[in-house]
Amino acid sequence: MSFRKEPPFIHGTVARSAVVLVNLGTPDEPTRGAVRRYLKEFLSDPRVVEIPRLVWWLILNLIILPFRSGKSAKKYESIWTREGSPLKVHTQKQATLLRGALGERGHDALRVVMAMRYGSPSLPEVLDKLKAEHCERVVILPAYPQYSGTTTASIYDAVFAHYAKVRNMPELRMVKHYHDHDSYIDALHDSVLAFWETNGRGQKLLMSFHGVPKRTLLLGDPYHCECYKTARLLAAKLRLKPDQYVVTFQSRFGKAEWLQPYTAPTLQQLARDGIERIDVICPGFTSDCLETLEEIAMEAKHDFLAAGGKQFHYIACLNEDPSWIAGFAEIAEQHLIGWPTMMTPAQREAEKKDAEIGRERALALGAER
């Protein structure tokens, strides 16, 4: 087995710590080809689809990719912004703001960067860059509050697969979940209250989480329970009675049974039952994306109104909400305990000298060329 080539090391270089905010991923552009490449990488992950590989390869490559890529591309096109994919834009902004929030707390020797599990910037690419920047301690911070083998564990797989080929590994800390963390619940609470203060309050609050196959729950995945705990804590913080909120699961795919109740049929039934206004929030997504902006704010809204509902209000994800960035910083900080993340005057001087050496080398290389 061959290992990756190690970057040049200069004695006296300040060893740094880093936080890597990892989200699911997104196509590079809303085109059939880009979406096909993204879906192939995503749906080829055995963590995402637990079907015998040969059978799934045939289904994926002969049925799903040829027919679904074009439809998905149109959906991505409907939510695409001038800046690009909403999920990527929000995740990058979160990483930038998180870096600032942690810096204000004194962590000035800390790098905070964004990576995607599927698509770009890829985890291996980002982890290689951190190694070149002398980051010897790395916290992996998933953008998923609730743990699932289909999401968080897949990030772990990618991290470990990358470092299996690295000779000089960094210290690693992996954040498993924060579904019940006070800062996360507080941020959700503040988001809902702010929305209600501006737009009034609906008859019910529907909390829609991303769905997964029911068999994952039966096999021991804690995702279902963690979603319900988030919902219960948020409802309690908002002082909602049991009949004032409902928990559902969206994004069902295929013919197998997934976690229930399903979002779309529940919204239709609520409308038929006489609920005229519904407020919908997606607590499991920390950044708005295809599943929230198109599936919920567009498709689910249409389902509710078509069934007789009068008003459908979507409450945006936490995105760059100041309350969430402060909460996110607190979560990250707890996983940095014991690691040096603040520069001493001597380290700042060493960092300055290291930068000067780097500039001199760059100039020398330029002269040689």
From TrEMBL:
Catalytic activity: heme b + 2 H(+) = protoporphyrin IX + Fe(2+); Fe-coproporphyrin III + 2 H(+) = coproporphyrin III + Fe(2+)
Transmembrane segments: none
Assigned keywords, A-Z: Cytoplasm, Heme biosynthesis, Iron, Lyase, Metal-binding, Porphyrin biosynthesis
Binding site for Fe(2+): H210, E291
Primary enzyme class: lyase
GO BP annotation list: heme biosynthetic process
EC number: 4.98.1.1
Matches recorded under HAMAP family: Ferrochelatase
Function: Catalyzes the ferrous insertion into protoporphyrin IX.
Family indicated by similarity: Belongs to the ferrochelatase family.
The protein, known as: Ferrochelatase
Gene: hemH
